[in-house]
Amino acid sequence: MPFCRSICRRGNLWKSLSSYRNPPRASQIPLLALLKRTYLHHCNSNSVIQPSFREIPVIVSARGLFTGGPVSAGMELQDVVSALEAFAPTHLAAEWDNVGLLVKPSEEHLVQTMLLTIDLTESVLEEALRVQAQMVLAYHPPIFHPLKTLSGRTWKERLIVRSLENRLAIYSPHTSYDAMAGGLTDWLAQAFGESTVSVLQQCSPSPHTSCGHYHLSTTLHGEDAINASVNLQSITGNTPKVIQMRRDGADNATDVIMSMNCTEQVLLQVLQCLSKYGARARTEINAVPTVSLPNTGIGRLCQFKEPMSIKDAVQRVKEHLGLPLVRLALGTQHVEESKIQSVALCAGSGGSVLKGVKADMYLTGEMPHHEVLDAIAEGTSVILCDHSNTERGFLPHLRNILVERLQQKVKVVVSAEDKDPLNIL
Hints:
This protein is of the alpha/beta class. It contains 14 helices and 19 strands. The strands form five sheets. The protein has a six-stranded mixed β-sheet. A five-stranded mixed β-sheet has the order 4-8-7-6-19.
């Protein structure tokens, strides 16, 4: 029996593909293209059935392998990144952080499956390949300190090399998710139920929207625009954007309109630079108004409407994070039945954020030993859950958000391999 007829009779491959809401094109799927080219003449074209997801036993994936479940329509990588940055702008991240699109495959890249993880380890990378993901959203940036080589000598080098080899994009949001309103830190605060929540360290406005910044629109002749762009970049640190090119009828030269933002500190230098081009440069300057960022920043302070015991607070944390055990340091004069009315919290490593904050309890992943001693001496109890345990439970919640943000075009999967490296035995 021909191979094609065998598949069609046993698994009904062609019927299954035809019943898909967004069937993959043969030109996009190497194995399917081969089957179509070699065996299509064996298939009965009248056997196409009406769309029905219940009748899909098998599909062909973009990697040419058989797998169960529907294929997502997919989104171009640039559109996925735009949606992620609209959800949590990268300027919310701490200055020391490394967020955004860290690994970008060459050429166009269609994202049909995205894997969510806190840490991108080698086992998580293997999982990403198994689920045939085209993109990984790793909360912690796998590239943080500069990599001097990509020889595969270290595990982080191997991550990047294998991601590039397998055309796997990597995006990291990290502290932008911590800072955003309704993000990871607010999710962590939900452990204590109804409370009044305030931000510990307010985010500064974006460099493009902060007070004292100016927007400039400059028109230059084409021959001047290149030199001006280089000089302006050296002054402001940003490359001016070309927003329009037009032909000047008077001398048949090309005019270039460039747009840029600059701070008040360098505005005079920018104007001096443009003055070199005399009457040939026409510039409009507008002050950019301040945009406030309410409820946005690092850390939260929860004020309870009704006091709760330390024992109850610990239990709430364990249930919210799905942990059987946590570590507790009782503050001076505290016992487990003591009533508390406020908790200051920070996901991950919160020592520097919580230091000196007046609260009955601190909640974070990890704190240096001496900062724990300082806290309990001030009468503040401390709950430590280990670094990533304060973050991982956010991923299922994030998954539901991203499915809608990506218009249900991308399959979003929470990693099963991702876990905190430390265990309490």
